[in-house]
Amino acid sequence: MLANYAILAVFMVVAGLVPIGALATAWVIRPHKPNPVKSEIYECGIETVGEAWVQFKVQYYIYALVFVIFDVETAFLYPWAVAYNRLGVFALFEMSIFVAILLAGLLYAWRKGALEWV
Amino acid sequence: MSITQVAFILISAITLGSALAMVTSRTVFVAALWMVAAFVGVAALYILLEAGFLAAIQLLIYAGGIAVLILFAIMLTPRVMQPMEGLSRFNDQWMFVAAVSAFLFAGLWALAIRTDWPVNLQRVTGDNIFLLGRGFMTQYLLPFEVTSILLLVALVGAIVIARD
Q1: Which of A91, B118, B144, B155 is spaced 20 to 30 A from A76 at the CA atom?
Q2: Do A74 and B60 touch (CB under 8 A)?
Q3: Cβ of A112: how many Cβ atoms within 10 Å?
Q4: What are B56-102's pLDDT values in tens digits?
Q5: Which residue of A has its CA nearest to B132?
Q6: ipTM exceeding 0.90?
Q7: What is the pLDDT of residues A50-95, one digit of tens each?
Q8: For chain A, how far is it from start to end, CA to CA, in angstroms?
Q9: A2-111 has which CATH code?
Q10: With contacts defined as CB-CB under 8 Å, which chain B residues touch A102?
Q11: CB contact under 8 A, A55 and B78
Q12: Distance (Å, whole) CA A33 – CA B11
């Protein structure tokens, strides 16, 4: 059982080494001639406006929050889906109630305009 | 020393190191990123305990959802997003807080050592996740449905607070 995860560990080590190797190789073989214009910070090809540390809109937070709620719902849906075939119609009914209650929350967020981007 | 023990020591070191970096970090945003590393470390510990489902949940909800939520909460706070230079991490109450923390740590430590933790050496027979799903649908049906109401309350409450 644990041996399966060893493959995952090997995969993660390789995934970590590849970008480090790429950056290290580039650092070794590239010419190093900085000048002030070259060292300037740029953003999508144009000069940056203002500070990097800016306050973000509250809409992002509401989206993240709705995401977390439905993330938790997914965590409950998964064992139900695994057991579904062996549990019968009653389980479908029970899960429908669970999803319907959460759907009421989504409808509330929708009605209150929390999903509108202003 | 078996390979599992080596893995355990390595993962524990990464988890504790990330947690330590989190509490000593000067910027709240950087602290939150270290917290994500600690979450991933805890997920790896769950895998060592052969609790694969719990590890997946830990990654999905903590390292995914909760981490994004906390990062957004930090990015929404005006004063936190200004880099704080020359600001001390200690205020005049640090001795009191250190004493309370030490007391709490000693208490939890004593409790953890004296408790006779029940250990079940029998392996769970059959499919873990199937047993969990069946439990939700039969024996623990009411707590399961109440969970959705709890999530609903959290969602509605957060929207009400955020829109105020």
Answers
A1: B118
A2: yes
A3: 14
A4: 999 999 998 899 888 888 888 777 656 566 667 778 888 999 999 99
A5: A79
A6: no
A7: 776 777 777 788 888 888 888 888 888 888 888 888 888 888 888 8
A8: 50
A9: 1.20.58.1610
A10: 148, 151-152, 155
A11: yes
A12: 41
